[in-house]
């Protein structure tokens, strides 16, 4: 027989049941989630999950709802139709009862009903609509599908009958009775189910026309629940200590399930909300801080064409918020609770938000700059996706999130660019992570103190071609927040006026006028202050000139091993001149501060630097006068190799690190100040130790006009992206983990330049840290 041109057809084995049943839905908690979703999609307002155990110890699970229910035709044409879902847009008809539902559907795969197979070997379905006189009953024995895989799926019969009413007593709805359970559920597993259900439904789900409540009923756990509740309400005379250990919503099995997502806890912290409109044309961002509205910006959505009807709400958790969260949650820490959860049409998408789930690579990004970026441990919140959107489709197993699509990648980019980075800019750069300032009596930065920065960083930094509207809380714009850099104020004002004119927003126009009046008053005061400062600058210039003369009087104390009196007297004279310079600088600063008209921050820092440098030289001269045994010429070239070698051998150098010098076959004569070289070596050694270094290589090389000295350590080295030129600025440290104050490198540069030399950092060196000093011959 050789058939030709025939039409063939697939046959479906009864083994399909396992593929779309317990083999697919392998997690028993997700199996229950799927059945609860079906109740939600059936327009139910109440779902009861019961776990009953008979006297013989046989358990069963009952899930009953008061939804729309199914007719006999619905059972035949839909429920028994494998992989068919009337929830899919193409399967909906105007006559279908589900068209009356006000909700967006949570599921549309057509296999959720097979979750019953994961829970137990047999199922009894009882369902009824309001128009039905009798309730319909379908009995399914899942084991029959496993007897013989050669049988076709449609050959396995299911039994049908009728009863007078639903077991739940509702006029309409569906009840699922699962028997022959595949496993026993203990109290810990029931509590895990309840806690997972608490996060299953978005807080938005009960804000619409149709509320949705889930209740758990486990008679065998009621005595334990009552005992815990009694302990919770009991006052032991020590301030309700028991309440700190028990959370009645999370630690009691029976009762209604309450959504415990972070925003329900009313903890005041920094919050950002980003909403893409239903039509996808606009993005609105709103920032609040500790219950106070800060600003909102509405702009055109040019970048995220595949995204629409999305609501993102994220909270920043500082240490105080973490403590409050743990207290309110009965000991549950934010780390063990989760981070950013994703919901689609009211229901959570697993496993997003679970502890250890690095959503959108947040923690990977955090590792690249832990003091600059936020990680999953510092944020908590949700992303809500609404409406029919085929670009966001769950994996069929329901345990691996969304199928990867361009829209999912776009959502990740939106989250990082429009949510995370905006929150970081405010939290990290403006309010010091929301933590008390140790340098200012544990004061916490408030929005009113940084109004100018808020306007500069957010309001005036948006693209004028995209902005639709802008709003800012006028109370954060006050004189205190604008008492800073006049150039920054003027720039922010111009941008603010441009934004106000572009949007023609009356509130923003009024805000711009308010800022302008306050700015003009501040600038007027600044002009008068600047005139006063000119006179002070002249006095300061004279002080600097005198300080320079005193610096030039510093010389290395020549001496021998007996440390003769002449060396000591000369050294003490130099120390005296340095301390005199320090006294003069301190008196100047004290007079300036007493008058309340201190010079600019840059000037003050410069004077402090001079005080610091003179003090270091005095200290180093005392060391050299007592311990030094070198004989150097005050003028002309000396051997810098011999000086450094003897400085180390005399135990004057910082201990705890191995010094290796090379080469030793040259004197390397050049012009240098001995105390300055000692201070430079000490600063470099100190930085190396802070970076975890154990060895410092000192390599000398003769150049045409210079002697080059390379100092190389084996510490942690530079962070990626560090601007090496900025490291020589006052107060800038080369690595946050070294816990330095950013003074050492600044000081080194000052000393080297005084000796007419140069100093650079090698940014290409990756096995540690390398700094190169060149001294004139």
UniProtKB/TrEMBL annotation:
GO molecular function: kinase activity
UniProt keyword list: Kinase, Transferase, Two-component regulatory system
InterPro entries given in the database record: HATPase_C_sf (IPR036890), HATPase_dom (IPR003594), His_kinase_dom (IPR005467)
All copies of domain Histidine kinase, residue ranges: 570-777
An annotated GO BP: phosphorelay signal transduction system
Taxonomy, superkingdom: Bacteria
Pfam family, one: HATPase_c_3
PANTHER family: SENSOR HISTIDINE KINASE, SENSOR HISTIDINE KINASE PDTAS
Name of the protein: Heat-shock protein
């Amino acid at each position: 027989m050789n058939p030709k041109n025939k039409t063939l057809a697939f046959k479906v084995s009864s083994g399909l049941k396992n593929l779309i049943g317990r083999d697919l839905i392998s997690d028993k908690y997700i199996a229950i989630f799927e059945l609860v979703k079906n109740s939600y999609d059936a327009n139910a307002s109440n779902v009861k999950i019961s776990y009953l155990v008979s006297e013989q110890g046989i358990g069963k699970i009952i899930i009953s709802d008061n939804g729309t229910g199914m007719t006999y035709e619905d059972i035949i044409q839909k429920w028994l139709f494998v992989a068919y879902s009337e929830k899919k847009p193409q399967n909906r008809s105007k006559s279908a009862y589900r068209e009356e539902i006000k909700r967006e559907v949570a599921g549309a795969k057509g296999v959720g009903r097979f979750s019953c197979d994961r829970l137990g070997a047999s199922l009894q379905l009882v369902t009824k609509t309001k128009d039905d006189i009798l309730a319909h009953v379908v009995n399914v024995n899942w084991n029959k599908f496993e007897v013989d895989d050669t049988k076709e799926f449609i050959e396995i019969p299911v039994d049908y009958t009728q009863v007078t009413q639903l077991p739940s007593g509702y006029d309409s709805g569906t009840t699922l009775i699962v028997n022959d359970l595949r496993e026993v559920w203990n109290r810990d597993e029931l509590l895990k189910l309840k806690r997972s259900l608490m996060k299953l439904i978005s807080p938005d789900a009960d804000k619409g026309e149709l509320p949705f409540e889930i209740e758990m009923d486990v008679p065998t756990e009621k005595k334990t629940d009552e005992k815990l509740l009694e302990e919770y309400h009991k006052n032991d005379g020590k301030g309700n200590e028991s309440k700190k250990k028990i959370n009645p919503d999370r630690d009691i099995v029976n009762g209604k399930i309450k959504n415990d997502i972070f925003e329900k806890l009313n903890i005041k912290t920094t919050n950002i909300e980003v909403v893409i409109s239903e039509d996808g044309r606009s993005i609105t961002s709103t920032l609040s801080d500790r219950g106070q509205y800060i600003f909102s910006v509405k702009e055109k959505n040019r970048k995220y064409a595949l995204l629409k009807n999305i609501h993102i709400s994220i909270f920043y958790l500082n240490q105080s918020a973490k403590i409050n969260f743990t207290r309110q949650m009965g000991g549950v820490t934010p780390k063990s609770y989760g981070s950013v959860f994703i919901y689609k049409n009211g229901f959570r998408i697993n496993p997003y938000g679970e502890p250890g789930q690095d959503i959108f690579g947040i923690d990977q990004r955090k590792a690249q700059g832990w003091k600059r970026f936020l990680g999953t441990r510092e944020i908590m919140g949700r992303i809500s996706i609404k409406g029919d959107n085929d670009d966001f489709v769950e994996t069929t197993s329901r345990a691996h999130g969304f199928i990867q699509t361009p829209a999912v990648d776009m959502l990740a980019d939106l989250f990082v660019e429009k949510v995370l980075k905006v929150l970081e800019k405010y939290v990290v750069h403006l309010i010091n992570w929301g933590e008390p300032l140790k340098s200012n009596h544990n004061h916490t930065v408030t929005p009113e103190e940084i109004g100018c920065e808020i306007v500069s960083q957010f309001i005036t930094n948006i693209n004028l071609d995209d902005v639709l509207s802008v709003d800012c809380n006028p109370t954060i714009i006050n004189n205190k927040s604008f008492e800073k850099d006049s150039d920054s104020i003027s720039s922010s004002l111009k941008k603010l006026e441009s934004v106000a004119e572009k949007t023609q927003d009356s509130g923003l126009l009024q805000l711009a006028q308010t800022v302008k009046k306050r700015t003009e008053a501040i600038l007027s005061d600044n002009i008068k202050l600047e005139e006063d400062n000119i006179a002070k600058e002249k006095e300061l210039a004279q002080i600097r000139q005198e300080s320079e003369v005193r610096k030039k009087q510093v010389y290395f104390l020549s001496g021998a091993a007996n440390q003769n009196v002449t060396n000591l007297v000369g050294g003490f004279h130099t120390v005296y001149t340095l301390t005199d310079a320090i006294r003069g600088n301190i008196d100047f600063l004290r007079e300036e501060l007493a008058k309340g008209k201190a010079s600019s921050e840059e000037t003050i820092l410069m004077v402090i630097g001079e005080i610091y440098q003179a003090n270091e030289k005095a200290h180093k001269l005392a060391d050299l006068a007592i311990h030094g045994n070198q004989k150097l010429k005050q003028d002309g070239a000396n051997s810098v190799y011999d000086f450094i070698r003897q400085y180390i051998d005399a135990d004057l150098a910082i201990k705890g690190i191995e010094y290796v010098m090379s080469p030793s076959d040259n004197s390397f004569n050049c012009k240098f100040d001995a105390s300055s070289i000692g201070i430079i070596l000490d600063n470099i050694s100190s930085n190396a130790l802070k970076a975890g270094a154990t060895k410092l290589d000192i390599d000398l090389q003769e150049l045409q006009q210079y002697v080059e000295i390379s100092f190389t350590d084996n510490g942690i080295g530079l962070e990626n992206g560090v601007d090496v030129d900025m490291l020589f600025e006052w107060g800038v440290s080369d690595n946050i983990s070294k816990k330095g104050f950013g003074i050492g490198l600044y000081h080194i540069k000052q000393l080297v330049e005084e000796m007419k030399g140069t100093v650079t950092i090698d940014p290409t060196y990756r096995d540690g840290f390398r700094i190169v000093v060149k001294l004139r011959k």
